[in-house]
Amino acid sequence: MGFFEKAWNSMVSFMNDKVLHTLSTIGIKDVIDIFALACIFFFLYRFAKKRRAMKIIMGVMLFLLALFLVDAAHLSALGFVFGDFKQLGLIALMIIFQPELRSALEKIGGLKVFNFHNPHGNNTKDDVTSHYVIESVSRAAQKLSSAGHGALIVIERQNSLSEYKRTGSAVDAVMSPDILCSIFYKGTALHDGAVIIKNGRIDSAACVLPMTNRVDIDSELGTRHRAAIGTTESTDAVVVVVSEETGKISLSIDGELERGFTYTSLRTALEKILIPETNNSQKPRAKALKTAISKKKSVK
After folding, report:
1. What is the value of pTM for the model shown?
2. Lowest-confidence range among 76-80, 176-180, 213-217?
3. Model pLDDT for residues 61-85, shown as the tens digit of each residue
4. Are 201 and 161 spatial neighbours (Cβ–Cβ below 8 Å)?
5. What torsion, rounded to 10 degrees, do the Cα atoms 177, 237, 190, 244 define?
6. How is the beta sheet containing 151-155 ordered, strand by strand?
7. Taking CA 247 as the corner, what is the angle to CA 181 and CA 52, rounded to the nearest 5 degrees?
């Protein structure tokens, strides 16, 4: 009996003894367990698909497949070599995925679980305040774009941005387009950095935001755009960017960034993201952004 025939028989025996036998004993609890595990893998895939980690995950999956085949075929030499990798695998994965794990834990840890007053995740006080914030941000973005001034405006929602506020200066000013514009005019002390809006007020300015580590981003995007993506990757904040070079207005949420907004289309997009639906069923933020983006293309 040749080597390949022995390997094939070993794999068939493995499938009959372990896989098929296991399938025959599956109950309701096992189905729930498998479903929960599938959901975890699905959300992990969604989290990693736009990051460098996706390529590493594919490599890990191929390595696990190789381990399975080696174990099924009873290849002792390869099994001995791969055995050491299995022992150190968990530690190695934690080191390799450190940036992604940090980002995910920051997003989970920043949630205000007991947010009874505003379950929709909108950190503005009420719909009137929300509309005023949206109007002020949209109007300021339009003016700054026309004047050729760059801007980075962050609207805090459910996740706390205290870590980033500490890097800037406390402002606690009334929200208005004129004040936002005055902050970002060249020559002012606070123009170089991000403005953070909380509860309908300008909370902080000149804040330093984390930049994304993604490598699939358009090379034309500058520091402000990368900071906007980096912030929305780890928090649920909404970030508006005005490019100093092109004057284009961009919107970032959930690690996604779209450019080419006007005053009207930006206001429409922010309303869909920040204002709860009348039937209290809020659309997922990323879906709301995509819907608003598709509609903005028809706005002249």
Report:
1. 0.61
2. 76-80
3. 787 787 778 777 777 777 776 666 6
4. no
5. -70
6. 169-174, 201-207, 194-198, 151-155, 238-242, 249-253, 256-261
7. 105
